[in-house]
Write a structure and sequence with these properties.
This protein is α/β, with parallel strands linked by helices and 279 residues long. It has eleven helices and nine strands. The strands form two sheets. Strands 3-2-1-4-5-6 form a six-stranded parallel β-sheet, sandwiched between helices. Helix 3 links the parallel strand 4 and strand 5. Helix 3 packs parallel to helix 4 and helix 6 packs across helix 10. The longest helix has 27 residues. Bound molecules: NADP nicotinamide-adenine-dinucleotide phosphate. The site of NADP nicotinamide-adenine-dinucleotide phosphate has 23 residues, from helix 1 and strand 7.
Length: 279
């Protein structure tokens, strides 16, 4: 199959590596000529240029740019692709993309491979990151079933675990498990910075160890990612943040009231429920 990839960064690069290994012809489009050369050198693509016209014979195109560029890329591709071509994306939010993209291109299937790394860019791309990880597709009621089946088949070829849901269900779910943790973790670091006594603040920094490393990791990462979550998944993120605020308020109240029984019950429930989210 002739497959186009627009945006040869981490996810675009990983997809190119796997799809070529599966025997597909991969046509890559990157903004910078040096990215094209690097993708060719590493065998991530069969051909690469900065021109979308390269994709005029593509049967399916994966858009792997930052979120803000996805819908404009669909619009630009609409002037280049045959009507039969399927466009999909890998953006980490779906409602803000799937609805306007489908208006521009009926054969659009929103997607989100739940795989990644903390590093960005083509240099970090590696084979096999989609294997045994969920790959979410968010078709709309009017999305042609053949287009969904084509992207689903490719996700299964990548050995991903296919998951289909509405764009809103996706956005609410990732708000809980991905976007809320970033805000909670960033808030934790921010709160520590509010310690008024410099001696205590310095001592806390010296004593910080594995617990703080784990809980501050996602909030102390790339600030652009947090901004992207807040801007493009605002309503679902606020919905989760308000629930978090209520749960946190309850913990504060139990400690203020020295209600150790209630606190113990809540902590035990949290410990038991954690395994439902992570192995
Ligand atoms: P990345 O490594 O920074 O790669 C983004 C690529 O898009 C870069 O190659 C960049 O080109 C290119 N690009 C930037 N602006 C563009 C534009 N206006 N037009 C065309 N190309 C443009 O980012 P990534 O982590 O792969 O993320 C890409 C997408 O995957 C995002 O939508 C993100 O939500 C989604 N996603 C990410 C992860 C993750 O863990 N990282 C996981 C799942 C999904 P240059 O090299 O020229 O700057």
């Amino acid at each position: 199959m002739k497959i186009g990839i627009v945006g040869l960064g981490l996810i675009g690069g990983c997809l190119g590596l796997d799809l070529r290994q599966l025997g597909h012809t991969v046509l890559g489009v990157a903004r910078r000529p040096e990215t094209c050369s690097e993708a060719l050198r590493r065998g991530i693509v069969d051909r690469a240029t900065s021109e979308l016209a390269l994709l005029e014979l593509a049967e399916v195109v994966f858009i792997c740019t930052p979120i803000a560029a996805i819908v404009p890329t669909v619009k630009a591709l609409a002037a280049v692709l045959p009507a039969s071509a399927v466009i999909t994306d890998v953006g980490s939010v779906k409602t803000a993309i799937a609805v306007p993209a489908a208006q521009l291109w009926p054969n659009f299937v929103g997607g989100h491979p739940m795989s990644g790394k903390s590093e960005a860019g083509l240099a970090a791309a590696e084979a096999g990151i989609f294997s045994c990880r969920p790959y979410v597709l968010t078709p709309l009621a009017e999305t042609p079933p053949a287009a969904v089946a084509l992207v689903a088949d490719l996700a299964e070829q990548l050995r991903s675990e296919l998951c289909c849901c509405s764009p809103l269900a996706h956005d609410r779910a990732v708000a809980w498990i991905s976007h809320l943790p970033v805000m909670v973790s960033a808030g934790l670091i921010q709160a520590c910075l509010n310690e008024p006594d410099p001696t205590i603040a310095h001592l806390a920094q010296r004593l910080a160890s594995s617990g703080f490393r784990d809980t501050s990791r996602v909030g102390g990462g790339n600030p652009e990612l947090g901004m992207m979550m807040a801007r493009y998944n605002r309503e679902p993120l606020l919905r989760s943040l308000y629930h978090y605020q209520a749960a946190f308020g309850q913990l504060i109240q139990q400690i203020e009231n020295e209600d150790w029984q209630a606190l113990a019950t809540q902590l035990a429930a949290a410990a038991a429920a954690r395994q439902d989210f992570v192995d």
